[in-house]
Design brief:
Blueprint lengths: L7 H18 L11 H21 L5 H5 L4 E9 L11 E7 L2 E6 L8 E4 L3 E5 L1 E6 L17 H10 L3 H17 L2 E8 L5 H14 L2 E6 L13 H14 L4 E7 L7 H13 L4 E5 L3 H4 L3 H7 L7 E5 L5 H10 L2 E4 L1 H6 L7 H7 L2 E4 L4 H4 L4 H16 L7 H15 L17 E5 L11 H8 L5 E6 L2 E5 L2 E2 L4 H19 L2
Helix pairs in contact: 1-2, 2-6, 4-18, 5-6, 5-18, 11-13, 15-16, 15-17, 16-17
The chain binds zinc ion.
Zinc ion (ZN) binds next to loops.
Length: 499
């Protein structure tokens, strides 16, 4: 195990935060309403911190503008889909955003001196929540097989010669695509952390992006089945994140779990997560052979499920398994596209829905999925359910939209902050154009979202009160530079991996 080493990048982030805390004193707080006062204050810190990191890294555009004092907007004239049963759902509304939070939602809001943003011709809704995404290999988009073999053999070959810098670029590319397609919260499933620098690079990219989410610290792809992951480096990362006090990003742990390593190993990793009070995520029952291990039942019997334990795929789990998962309060993440592509099979959506398990949706990875498109994930989820049931709409489209938003947020234990549009929650929202060839006329909001819209329909994206996409254009990303960097990086990695 490695000893803790100070990392310069982290030290500079921590220094930056104290400076920003001083700045914050000048801005607060007497005018804030009583609800979630702490959350408002923390929101200010993170917003400024993200902008500062972005400038320091020299990677993002628009950061200076975003950190200026105008943190208040009235978003005007969009049709509301709150995911919270607001009586104004389906009507045109104004949304007052202040200090990163939703301050008011009403038919009309007058706020003299506050910037108004016209969102007419759109549907405004909570940003999507992706619950399981291996972001590091986003630059390996489409390398689904090679002379080295199938997906897994190819990924392993690439992973061995991967670099920390490449992981950072992969995460930045993923986050840019997330924002572009309306995903405002992610669970970055970092399962190729080959040394602490890899984790630092991924985390730095998340911190700089201003996108909400979890960093699920992982292990090298080629780690032995009898080897425990580097828990000391995980602890160091936890300490540094605590010092940063960044409320947009929280830490978790991704592990191989009972289906993919030895019992003494996964038990040690489980114990590490619980003793450090970190949420844990693991793939499970993804094939019939793995499901035959009975891992879900074993975890349940040992008290090793719960709201802090997210299970992923469970493609071959049965209704009884899902009931155990639901009883324990463990959230589930499925990724229907990649589950098809890699040959896991059809997600058992009817059993999942029947069990009442807390479900979130995910894109999984760009190597197989091709693009980070929650609209098409929702569409295939809804339509697979109908195909499996051999009847129309066995699961309502509004249920599917809820899985992509508030369900995912609850599963990541972020349901109090995001996943629906409610006064007091953080302002993570998107506006989807309803006046385009592919979306108009709108038969129902849920059909439009699950069957008509696509990432190009996302006109406006706000995360924690910051504008990330406006007028259909990314506001904080130097896209040409990022794409060129990604291309250069993957070309070099393919060469070094002999692909
Ligand atoms: Zn996965």
């Amino acid at each position: 195990m490695q000893r803790l080493q100070p990392v310069d990048a982290w030290k500079s982030l921590i220094g930056l935060e104290s400076a920003l805390s001083r700045t914050m004193e000048e801005h607060r707080i007497s005018e804030l309403p009583n609800y979630q006062n702490t959350v408002h204050r923390r929101g200010f810190i993170v917003s400024s911190l993200s902008a500062g990191v972005a400038l320091g890294a020299g990677r993002l555009f628009g950061a200076e503008k975003a950190s200026a004092k105008s943190e208040e907007y009235v978003l005007s004239g969009a049709t509301l889909l709150s995911q919270a049963g607001n009586e104004l759902d389906g009507s045109k509304v104004d949304i007052h955003v202040k200090d990163g939070a939703i301050f008011a939602i009403a038919a009309s809001i007058e706020a003299p001196g506050v910037s108004r943003i016209d969102l007419s011709g759109t549907l405004v809704m909570p940003g999507f929540v992706d619950t399981h995404w291996h972001m590091w290999n986003t630059i390996a988009r489409g390398i689904q097989s090679s002379a080295k073999g199938d997906f897994f053999a190819t990924q392993k070959a690439l992973a061995k010669t991967w670099t920390a810098e490449a992981s950072g670029v992969g995460v930045r590319l993923a986050l840019a695509e997330a924002v572009n397609s309306g995903i405002t919260t992610v669970n970055n499933w970092a399962h190729n952390v080959r040394a602490r620098e890899f984790a630092d690079a991924e985390l730095e990219a998340q911190l700089a992006s201003g996108v909400r989410g979890r960093f699920s610290y992982g292990y090298p792809q080629d780690i032995a089945e009898d080897e425990v992951m580097d828990v000391d480096s995980l602890a160091a990362t936890q300490k540094r994140l605590a010092e940063l006090d960044n409320p947009l990003i929280h830490l978790g742990l991704c592990v191989r779990g009972p289906d993919r390593c030895e019992e003494k190993v996964w038990r040690a990793e489980w114990e590490a997560a619980r003793s450090m009070k970190l949420p844990l995520t693991t793939h499970i029952a993804s094939t019939a052979a793995k499901a035959a291990n009975g891992s879900i039942r074993k975890l349940h019997q040992n008290g090793l499920l719960g709201p802090d334990i997210q299970l992923v795929h469970a493609t071959h789990a049965k209704l009884d398994d899902f009931k155990l998962i639901a009883d324990a309060g463990s959230p589930l993440s499925i990724s229907p596209w990649t589950e098809l592509e890699v040959g896991y099979g059809l997600p058992p959506l009817l059993e999942i829905a029947k069990s009442g398990v807390e479900l979130g949706l995910s894109v999984d990875n760009m190597v197989l999925a091709g693009r980070a498109d929650m609209f098409e994930v929702m569409k295939i989820t809804a339509d697979l359910a109908a195909g499996l049931a051999t009847q129309m709409l066995p699961i309502s489209l509004s249920k599917v939209v809820s899985w992509a938003t508030i369900g995912g947020a609850r599963g990541l234990q972020l349901g109090e902050q995001t996943g629906s549009l409610e006064v007091g929650k953080r302002a993570d929202l998107i506006a989807v154009r309803t006046d385009r060839l592919n979306t108009s006329p709108v038969g129902s909001a849920e059909f439009m979202l699950t069957h008509s819209a696509n990432p190009a329909s996302v006109d406006f994206v706000m995360i924690d009160g910051k504008i990330h996409k406006q007028g259909g254009r990314l506001a904080k990303v130097d896209l040409p530079a990022l794409l060129e960097e990604s291309q250069t990086m993957i070309s070099s990695l393919k060469k070094s991996a002999g692909l």
